Amino acid sequence: MNSSKRSTLTVLIIVAIVIVGGIIWFGNSSSAPSPSEDGVTSPLAVANGSSTPVAVSETVKVSGSLSEYQNAELGFSVKYPSSWEKEETNAGVTFIVPVDKNQVSTVATLQSNIQVLSGKCAFPPVTSVKDRGTITVGSDSLDTVSMSNTVQGRTYSNRMYSLQKSDICYMFSFASITLSPSSKGLSGSNVTQADNNNKAIVSTADSDFTSMVKSFAFVSTPAGTDETKAAPAK
To answer: Which helix (H) or strand (E) holds 178?
Structure first.
């Protein structure tokens, strides 16, 4: 294998770690959270001894452009653009961000995820990081990391936030994939137009994602009826 092929293979491995490790690894975690010590609802509550998590969720419109997603079992709520397509998972929720097909662009994928997992928060191992930092949401401080790689004309970008609450980790991730102009048959001035639109589309979605993270709030599960004190029916 020559040096050029080895270099391409190395970069592809880096991208696989970032994209697959950052999204699928968190989504397929098999551990179930235990009750927290500070009053935060324990995620992934199991009903009737079943091993399948039961999500108690609700989505309501809060304005002309915003909706609020609440999940009592996972213990959180967020506000997000109503145009985003919501897909619930066993450990959280995924939002697919629509891309305007009428614009000249090569954005192929825009997606954000919220995962609720047991154990200590940890970003996936990567070899290159664009920036690190923290943001404040209410009284909590969230760690953040962003990364970007370009392989064979495709640009992969990720931004992730993590919040550790007792033994529960709340992980937020945003991913975008942008294709090369040549893959869409673009040339000349269309390439410049597509590049400019790509940046605007990804930037807007990333900003909306960060706003969603900043809207994060804890939700308590309804207490229910104490059967030891309930009077039997006559």
So the answer is: strand 168-178
Confirm whether pTM is higher than 0.90. no
Per-residue pLDDT reduced to its tens digit, 111-131? 999 999 999 999 988 778 889
Residue 163, strand partner residues? 170
Please state, in angstroms and rounded to a whole number, the distance separating the CA atoms of residues 21 and 31. 16
Domains of the chain with CATH codes: 3-31+91-216 (2.60.120)
Going by the DSSP 8-state scheme, the letter that residue 130 receives in this structure is: S
* Cβ atoms of 37 and 50 closer than 8 Å: no
Under a CB-based contact definition with an 8 Å cutoff, are residues 14 and 126 in contact?
yes
User: If we measure between CA atoms, which residue out of 35, 40, 60, 18 comes closest to residue 175?
Assistant: 18
Which token pair is 128? 């290159």
**What CA–CA distance (Å, rounded) separates 78 from 139?**
16
The DSSP letter of residue 175 is: E
* pLDDT tens for each residue of 132-189: 999 999 999 999 999 999 998 899 999 999 999 999 999 999 999 999 999 999 999 9
